[in-house]
Amino acid sequence: MEIPTHVNYLLEAARCAPSADNTQPWRLRWDGVTLAVGYDAARAGNVTFAPENPATLLAMGALLENLRQAAAAAEIQLERIELPVNEYFRMKVSSDSPLPAGCADHPLFYRHTSRLPFRADPLPAALSGWLSEQCEGAARVTVLGRPPEISRVAELVGQASAIRFRTREITEWLGRSLRFTPSEVATGDGLDVETLHLPPGGRALLRLIADWRRMETFNRWGAYRLLAAIEAKAVSNASAIVAVASAGGHSGAFNAGQLMERIWIELNRQGLSVQPFYVVSDQLFRREEGVLPEGMAHLGDSLAGGAEDVFGLSGQKLYMLLRVGFPRRAPVKSRRLPLSSICEA
Predict the structure, then answer these.
(1) What is the pLDDT of residues 277-286, one digit of tens each?
(2) What are residue 213's phi and psi, to 5 degrees?
(3) Which of 157, 244, 276, 326 is the most buried (most CB within 10 A)?
(4) What is the SS3 assignment for 1?
């Protein structure tokens, strides 16, 4: 089936959405009338979060935001229809006119992650105010820009990372997502190590810790403390930390994903760099599910208490932290899978 130009434009917008470790877990289906979004279990099932995990729902919410922004820019009508089984959403797509000139230059196509050092100048007051006002359904934003606040968030990231680097499942996922060689990068998914801000010897270290048996051995010598400190230090180099919180459940996570993507697109449009940190949220959700590594429940409790103090969650869930600052240089941008790998018509 030939895909119409306006639908292909929407598919290109969808594939630009962010996902955990750039795993792109979505499966897009065009049947000639509707565009459906589901989970690609065959491709992503053993390398990333499960279909109903908050991280996956967050990514699907971001994809939905891209579709809506792209459709609005191109005057394409989207009508959400009844949710089928095993799909996140399905949209009836229609358009009465050709694509407007310039719609392919929408800012969503230029959204990117930067893990490089930032200039930590304060955010403009107008931008900070705009961020604080943003919401989507139950999702809301907290902007932390004072140095003591940013330092406190860095401490939380360090605590969460110390758990993360002692969790076998996460370590093995990381190992499967890393892309070292040009041929590996050319696949279009995963983490190109060139996009990471690695110190000298960083590539070799990543190759070593990608194997859980070696990581477990290194951890006996405190390797997880060093890695957690590196993560925390990166957070400290920021103009602001933007926290996205929302209600729990399917709709709360979708709202958070839409809001996160909207903010991220606008920040990049205004020339700021953004790095997402899911590690605190991940450990908090794992704590709720009772799946933290043995002997670390007390660390999860401490992390939860700290997150409540810093973000004032008041019953909401923390879904994402965005490290925001002014770029010192342009980052290497992550690639995306070809449409043929994520879409069927």
Answers:
(1) 999 999 999 9
(2) -65, -40
(3) 244
(4) coil
